[in-house]
Amino acid sequence: MRRLSIYLASIDEINQIRNPKGFTFRSKEMERKLVSPVVIDDIQPIVGADLIEVATVKGWKLVVKKNEFSIGDHAVYCEIDSFLPIREEFEFLRKSSYRKMGEQEGFRLKTMKLRGQISQGLLLPVSLLEGYTYQIGEDVSARLGVIKYEPPVPAALGGIAKGLFPSFMPKTDEERIQNLSGQYEEFRKHTFYVTEKLDGSSATFYLNEGVFGVCSRNLDLEETEDNTFWKIARVEKLEEKLAALGKNFAIQGELIGEGVQGNAYGLRGQTVRFFNAFDIDRYEYLGLDEFKALFASLGLQTVPILDEEYVLPASLDEMLTIADGASVLSPKGKEVEREGLVIRSKDRKISFKVISNKFLLNER
Asked: What pLDDT digit, counting tens, does each position of 126-136 carry?
């Protein structure tokens, strides 16, 4: 296989990017709140464990030292995927969590299981904020030097940056249900549709004011012959299909297949399964019925739709258990753990993701 010689957009996607024309782009403020002051909602013992217990903050469960925190205490919560800097206060993480992200050293927080208990993230005393007057829920990631861990990007998925992700449409990201735990009971009054969250790479294709574009999660990409996103766009004739709609429009999906996240689904080549259709002029997503009709008319595949009349279970814990399961796209003779579920109201006013804890425990 010939060597690919294109610009790799990895850490630069969240820091600073220089494109071939010499213009410099800086990323927008990170949308995901990685570190925030929280109130501890609950603490429970772990069967058979004398030195640790499990704390609950929002919808997350974390293993902590026994008697380190009490219900109602304030603490600093670091979500999974946080990349903590090399600091003396975090050195206790070195054995379990030390990683390099490009040339940058730090500590990556992942889902773990301790004495049979799932633990997601890290709970720290508020003294870490050194007297800062905080608000509960405030994003203090930058204050502590914490950024999101980004795994290495394969060459064919990197590409040459034309610019950052365009502002005339939303990025492809959903809030995790644990961060919406306070609204869970209200959500139970609604009916949703459920799709499988595929383990791939986010892709967006748009036609706006006559300009066709292709984006990764964070970048608007120049067309190059070796870039997988652009190759898919040309093979599927996405520019022509969007032009036929006669409006400014974007479609978003998950790129899966060879060279993408280990190709868990055993596919030959690459393909995109779509999960969003966005009307740029109205600045809104299509509801379920319009979404299905659109992709049927375009001859494009969607992500697996698992249920169109779904009511949430009684508890968030039960919802997390339901997220575990085999992927619809599991290859013959092999059961692949799905990444999770995406749950949306049919009018698209409510939307969130539920990531499988089994998947997270096996995450590389």
From this structure: 999 999 999 99
